[in-house]
Design brief:
Elements (H helix, E strand, L loop, with lengths): L14 H6 L11 H20 L5 H28 L5 H28 L10
Helix pairs in contact: 2-3, 2-4, 3-4
Length: 127
């Protein structure tokens, strides 16, 4: 090792310490405003599909690409939360996963209402 660089010991959390860590981005730790914003974001694919038939040419293609990318992003975000949460049983996670793939514009607002808007309030754990 070169001079001036110090070796810091690696600290590892025990299972108990790991259980006490809080994931601040989990919906159960968010106030109503971020949950409402996520709900509006979840409605964008439905709204874009509703106005898509009234568009023509490049605007229609642009809106289609935007809708596809936005929906994919939301599937990744909500799917990540779904995988991490322990409040949803495995069989329901599989069902939600299939629904995300097959009917994402309809499923995203339903998942938001059921598991983000109505997420249980997290309990703060103190050491």
């Amino acid at each position: 090792m070169s001079q001036g660089m110090e070796q810091h010991p690696v600290t590892r959390n025990t299972d108990r310490e790991q259980a006490m860590l809080v994931d601040a981005h989990d919906p159960s730790h968010q106030t109503r405003l971020p949950r409402m914003i996520l709900g509006l974001c979840a409605l964008v694919p439905v709204a874009s599909l509703a106005i898509l038939p009234f568009m023509e040419g490049a605007a229609r293609a642009g809106m289609g690409y935007f809708s596809l990318l936005w929906t994919g992003l939301l599937v990744l975000v909500f799917g990540g939360w779904m995988v991490k949460t322990q409040g949803v049983p495995l069989d329901r996670k599989v069902a939600w996963g299939f629904a995300f793939v097959l009917l994402a514009p309809i499923t995203l607002p339903l998942y938001w209402y059921r598991h983000v808007w109505n997420a249980p309030v997290a309990r703060v754990r103190h050491a």
